Amino acid sequence: xxxxxKKLNKFLILAIIILAVILIYxxxxxxxxxxxxxxxxxxxxxxxxxxxxxxxxxxxxxxPNVNLNPSPSTTSVLVTFTARDAxxxxxxxxxxxxxxxxxxxxPTRTGTCSMQSSAGKEKTYQCSVSMNYYDKSGAWTAxxxxxxxxxxxxxxxxxxxxxxxxxxxxxxxxxxxPSVAPEDINILSxxxxxxTNNGNFEAPPGAILATAYNLIGETDASQNIPAANFKxxxxxxxxxxxxxxxxxxxxxxxxxxxxxxxxxxANTETLSYCLTSVPEISSQAYxxxxxxxWVIAIN
Length: 299
What we know:
It is built from two helices and 20 strands. By secondary structure, the chain is mainly beta. The protein has two domains: 56-162, Immunoglobulin-like; 168-298. Strands 9, 10, 11, 15, 16 and 18 form a six-stranded antiparallel beta sheet that branches.
């Protein structure tokens, strides 16, 4: 009985050993054939949010001194600048490109811009700013700008110089007097001179000059009416015969009661004339023409 029991125990142990071997083999087979999902590595997502970059003006070309065209013309001034956007050139909105000229007390002059070229992360724009003949001479500030798709704006400024434009026109081109007789006094001209400022200068009192010449007899040139017998005054002085400036033969005389402002309107002055006395001379026409024509000028 003991021998049989001992023999049964041996078989049981052997069976357990065989079963263990079978299980180990099956487990190894399952691993080798990936029947069990092990994870020695795993994917992971990476995210970075890139925000909007502030665009910049990398180049604003110098603007040459501006020579204005006289009235009634305007003058187109070109401005070229380059902008850069780290988010890419296409992030710049071409329609927002602008240029303007400013000067204290003067109207702002605004131009229109167009994109000229694009390279890398940059765009170059050219703008045309229209200036008027009466725009103030001296230093102006030029400001350019452009925005990106997020409305962030790049801006830069420089200085330009507008040159002085001295230009006038007069009307009519003749000064007529009524018929006179020797020893007549204080005869007003029938024609006054209208001076129009076609530039951007401003003439203070005395800056308008009149150069007069003796009126020579057209039939008998030995006789004349001296230039010194005439006076001239600006619109602010109605008493030209009494308080006007006396003229001098072949010499310029400052008209102290005259001024000439600049602008689109109110940019005129009117000169009146008085023949203070008629000398005892023969009856004929007297005139100053050709190289002896009177000259109205600005100082």
